[in-house]
Please model this.
Amino acid sequence: VTRQANKKLRRERIFNIAKRLIAAKGLEDFTISELAYEAGVTTPTIHNLFGKKSDIIKELVSNLIEKMQGIALNPPIDPIENAKFFIDNVVAVFEQEGDFYRAAFMSAERVRLFDPRVPDGIFQRAQQLAAPRKEWYESGLFLGNIEPSTMMKRVHNSYRLGRIDWVSGYIDLNQLRHQVLEGMFLVYASDASPELHARLIEEINGLISL
Amino acid sequence: VTRQANKKLRRERIFNIAKRLIAAKGLEDFTISELAYEAGVTTPTIHNLFGKKSDIIKELVSNLIEKMQGIALNPPIDPIENAKFFIDNVVAVFEQEGDFYRAAFMSAERVRLFDPRVPDGIFQRAQQLAAPRKEWYESGLFLGNIEPSTMMKRVHNSYRLGRIDWVSGYIDLNQLRHQVLEGMFLVYASDASPELHARLIEEINGLISL
Model:
């Protein structure tokens, strides 16, 4: 094992300990010194590998977005299947490490990590993932009467509110799935061709949501 | 002045002091004993007039919903004018006592005052205000392909997310207005007659939102 690979492995191990600590006690009570203690290294080592506490948090959330961007690489082309593919993958990620993500999101809102006013911030990167595909306009599935950027914002908002409700403990992951799909499908329906509109309505009326 | 009227006046005066204290320091740091001190009465008097701290908070939020229900008594019949009437009135209420409402909402989410799982809770009462009107279906403005209850939920969700963004400090009241209208109009567009749909699109494309 090279020195670089070694460093990477060590970094990953400490990163996972950080996640466990945040899941257990929240972001506010998470400290570099406790992380160092749990990982059996010194605090300068942590600082050297990750930077400040806020750098670790940013990296954790960035990781999530990258995970979702990775997921989004080869999605189904049909808008309805595409939406289901997106939310199923989000739910799968949350399911794996629910405690961590809830703790991270709850604190992230508080420290304004999702502040939409930050240019090229996490908000903007996540919003981009909700952009309708060019093909949907080219094939006539979307009529193009409403700005694609408006569609993107409202799809992202549907996901955002669902996530907030899940983080608040109001809904579980299955309800999150239904709520986000309902929101996405209604947004799509506002600019859909008659054929797509009919399919969307069937989907919407089959959902059980908050 | 009768004894009843006197009590009512005193209650109102203390209620306004409570609002001022909550606006200044948030709900968490608001205490009955400080309220008593500021109002120049004893803590048993406060308890006698209002009950516990949580009772005061519930009353404050209930008051807001009643204010909005009052507003909703004589709204315009046209869906677009109706939506504007609703949000303009909400914004006017928030404008008057913005600091108080932001502090109250922020803490209310934390103490789960808006938990949708509470039957006949604040969430349900607020959601009812977003119900589409029967006349919109009777006159054919709304096609009725999507359940009215789904429309209601999504309209309420549009308002809810806007409020959360405003309470988080991400948007100002003017942006709140645009964001909520955009959400409401997109929901309406998903089930609108062609005539209403065309009008909604014109409105949507004229909004500047997050």
